[in-house]
Design goal:
Low-confidence stretches: 13-17
Order of helices and strands: HHHHHHHHH
Largest sheet: none
Shape: elongated
Number of strands: 0
CATH architecture of the largest domain: Orthogonal Bundle
Length: 219
């Protein structure tokens, strides 16, 4: 019996140690990303080195490489945080019960616009980072776009269930909407128009899409 008790204690102790080590690792990675964000924001991704990030964290470059293989890995993690922030808010919009399908579509599109515009005006180098990742680590950006399309699919399915929209092909329609609204989340469009102009264009487009989906004669 004593042996079983000791064995159980050892297992619980090992689990506690594993959990503690995981938390320490997470804290270190968070510290690294915070330092990297500060560097990327001030100097840009291209002009930041691993040695500088390590120095800002108070660790050696060798120790930094234990947590991230290279600067691209750090950049991908940073882009992931940027995308996760947007996704959380978009998901909240899609699953709200107090909005119509049209209101959800408009809020969805406007939030993507505001998210991109906010970073373009306050932290343009973070937008630069996302653009670099879209070329050097496209899977990060592609995954995010696919997640947004899935949210649009959910929005359309909800609308069908409530007889607000008629959609013959939900996946294709969601992807088409995603492509049609691309203008309102492209960094290159931010300096060409005022935010008010972009918002007006986004609302008009959403109204046109909704009108088409509400057409009872749509086949």
């Amino acid at each position: 019996m004593a042996g079983l008790v000791n064995c159980k204690y050892f297992v619980e102790y090992s689990q506690d140690v594993d959990y503690s080590l995981a938390m320490i690792e997470q804290d270190i990675r968070t510290q690294i990303l915070s330092a990297a964000e500060a560097r990327f924001t001030q100097y840009g991704y291209g002009k930041t080195t691993m040695a500088e990030i390590a120095r800002d964290c108070g660790m050696s470059a060798a120790n930094l490489y234990r947590h991230y293989e290279n600067k691209l890995d750090i950049g991908a993690a940073m882009a992931g945080l940027f995308f996760a922030e947007e996704y959380r808010q978009l998901a909240k919009i899609v699953y709200r019960d107090d909005l119509t399908a049209m209101e959800k579509l408009e809020a969805f599109t406007l939030h993507s616009l505001h998210h991109c515009h906010k970073y373009f005006t306050t932290s343009p180098r973070i937008i630069e980072l996302v653009e670099v990742m879209s070329v050097q680590s496209p899977c990060v950006c592609d995954d995010h776009q696919q997640q947004k399309i899935k949210l649009l699919q959910e929005l359309l399915m909800q609308a069908q269930e409530k007889d607000e929209f008629i959609v013959n092909d939900v996946p294709a329609s969601a992807e088409a909407i995603h492509m049609a609204t691309l203008t309102f989340r492209l960094p290159m469009m931010m300096p060409r128009y005022t935010l008010v102009e972009l918002e007006k264009g986004a609302r008009t487009l959403c109204q046109m899409i909704a009108m088409g989906l509400q057409d009872k004669n749509t086949k």
